[in-house]
């Protein structure tokens, strides 16, 4: 694997534009998780250490293109970066397309790129304007690697010099290793509500894994092949695909379940065999027998790939499956890799962030990568000989 990395370049006195993914969860102007910000710090610090004029750019949320909207401003992130993470002056630049002034040792953040018309359509003129702001472009936003936007693919095409940052490098290196040469047995956990959104992923993961544990609505669709699933979330249209997967691969489906009659903390929890679900019941977690057998399976694995919860972990009564699996992964000596929004929320809830070997900063990008899709930015970087995998 060859890559032109930021640490190999002379950045002295250079305008270094780092594309990061600062699309962090936020509520009422407050940052809920700073994981993505912290993950970008080594790149920013490296550029500062190398005497660069540091310029950061990111998207945030999904504002309507072409106009400023305070709700999607990067200002709260800039303040957080300045006061909590970098402890130095960080300034936000609102209007930057016609040129900016940044000095060596300074950190400037360009306002949300998604306010710019043409960003999401990868407009060439816009990408050229971005490119004119820098001497070196650093692609470090793995989280947005599945989008072909002006601040990613366009910029990589037109920048005088492009390279990749440590965050991007690590993501590609770790995910590539797990996909191509994992330590075996490799056990994958794929949870979440819909099989339809993860069907291709399920096929590609099943092909490379020694066992796949399915959870949530995905598991329910497998159960629905031969069982009544009552009011549970499942997708009848995908039962045939589930049948094919089950006949070809080692897919682990539950043997017992926790059910309730409504999605509420108040509902009465009953544990039962998969054959006994009533028409007014909803499957919301696995039962103890299933949990025990999955724990035993995970204990034997050498690599664990985790995306998506097992049950409705938002409700404490139906948290056990996800919690026990999460804690088993955390205590395991296997190489564990996790990604995706719900998975990260579970990891934070159970306080096991430091016990997972690798947490991807990507949501959609992580899923696309492990599905085996070529990410657009990777194609561009390959074409321009910045990386070769
Ligand atoms: C993410 O959160 O997955 C990335 O930042 C990409 O965001 P998007 O789905 O709005 O493009």
UniProtKB/TrEMBL annotation:
Reactions it catalyzes: (2R)-3-phosphoglycerate + ATP = (2R)-3-phospho-glyceroyl phosphate + ADP
Binding site for substrate: 21-23, 36, 59-62, 114, 147
GO BP term, pick one: gluconeogenesis
SUPFAM superfamilies from the UniProt entry: Phosphoglycerate kinase (SSF53748)
UniProt EC number: 2.7.2.3
Pathway: Carbohydrate degradation; glycolysis; pyruvate from D-glyceraldehyde 3-phosphate: step 2/5
Keywords for the protein's UniProt record, in alphabetical order: ATP-binding, Cytoplasm, Glycolysis, Kinase, Nucleotide-binding, Transferase
Top EC class of this enzyme: transferase
Binding site for (2R)-3-phosphoglycerate: 36, 114, 147
Entry's Gene Ontology molecular function annotations: ADP binding; ATP binding; phosphoglycerate kinase activity
Residues reported in the UniProt entry to bind ATP: 198, 314, 340-343
Annotated compartments: Cytoplasm
GO cellular component: cytosol
InterPro entries (alphabetical): Phosphoglycerate_kinase, Phosphoglycerate_kinase_CS, Phosphoglycerate_kinase_N, Phosphoglycerate_kinase_sf
Subunit structure: Monomer.
Family: Belongs to the phosphoglycerate kinase family.
HAMAP family: Phosphoglyc_kinase
UniProt-recorded name of the protein: Phosphoglycerate kinase
Source organism of the structure: Candidatus Pantoea edessiphila
Lineage: Bacteria, Pseudomonadati, Pseudomonadota, Gammaproteobacteria, Enterobacterales
